[in-house]
Amino acid sequence: MKEDSKKDSFRKKLLEKQSEAKVVRKIVLTVFILLVIAFSGLIGGGYLYIKSALQPVDPADQKTVNVTIPIGSSVSMIAKILEENQLIKDDRIFKYYIKFKNESDFQAGDYELKKSMTFDDIILSLKKGKVMEEVALQITIPEGRQLKEISSIIANNTTYDEEDIFKKLTDKTFIDAMRDKYPDLLTNDLFSEKVKYALEGYLFPATYPYYTENPTIEEIVEPMIGKMHEVVTKYYAQIQEKDMTIHEFVTMSSLIEEEATAKADREKISSVFYNRLDKDMMLQTDPTVLYALGEHKDRVLYADLEVESPYNTYKVTGLPPGPIANAGEMSMVAALNPEETDYLYFLATKEGQVIFTKTLDEHNKEKNTHITNQ
């Protein structure tokens, strides 16, 4: 009897456990199904939202909407203007679409657009450009120019006084206004006590057209910052991969620009700078000394190397506090893609050739051959 009683008790417990297991399996299955439904809903909802955002705002609306795209507008600014005028549904989707299609060369101008237009229709219109007016003024800013030189270039092409232009370029109110417009580009690093001029290196070298006879200094300069933002934005991912700040990237690019000649291999120059940084060696690049001195000279003397300045890379280790000139896109690309070398030194000859060496002895020999004995 006791034997049968034990068996019955065992069966009951086994049945109870099986019943509990079924309940647990049902609960797990139910939760899993609910999660799948929720996840599918999110994916489906996201897909439907993006699909809708890619469609015209109103395919039946043929009324024209007058839109002005200012000079120097970035893709983000253009997308925002289009959304504000209800010509697209989501500026972010439009921006990603442009990036996916690798579109560029949008032109400033006055446009008559419609809510029935597709993304491709809008892009085509913006690329063709209905230019506002004939160019009234054109200013070219070459690569490797400093803020004071840019002030002089603007003065030579306008009626403004060079001092007034430079005063505006270093005016905190103006800089803060630009910072509000381009916060990703003009970061807190610009306002370090050691930085000589906040906007140094941030006016992109290019040719800028203006469509009014007498644009203000602000109207002349802002497109240069806007263009810098547009160019640097393309490299944000690579800058992050190199664990650099935007300011460090712009600074490194400026050093490469100032050291490069027409025949120079910028990627090799870049490699020398990175190799020296990796070894905690001072960069010892002459253009930083000249920037610290505030003058241009054909040749840096030994006495010049003693100038006390955070920009003097013969005195301080690492990058200088900020850019020493504006860099072109070639130098920016080189700053992100240094060639793999063992070089620690380079020397520019009077003929424009750049000689790279691995040791100080090799460098000094080349220096005696090409510089000292000439």
From TrEMBL:
One of its GO terms (molecular function) is lytic endotransglycosylase activity. The keyword Transmembrane helix applies. It catalyses: a peptidoglycan chain = a peptidoglycan chain with N-acetyl-1,6-anhydromuramyl-[peptide] at the reducing end + a peptidoglycan chain with N-acetylglucosamine at the non-reducing end. Its EC number is 4.2.2.29. The keyword Secreted does not apply. It holds the Pfam family YceG. Functions as a peptidoglycan terminase that cleaves nascent peptidoglycan strands endolytically to terminate their elongation. Belongs to the transglycosylase MltG family. This is Endolytic murein transglycosylase. It comes from Bacillus weihaiensis.
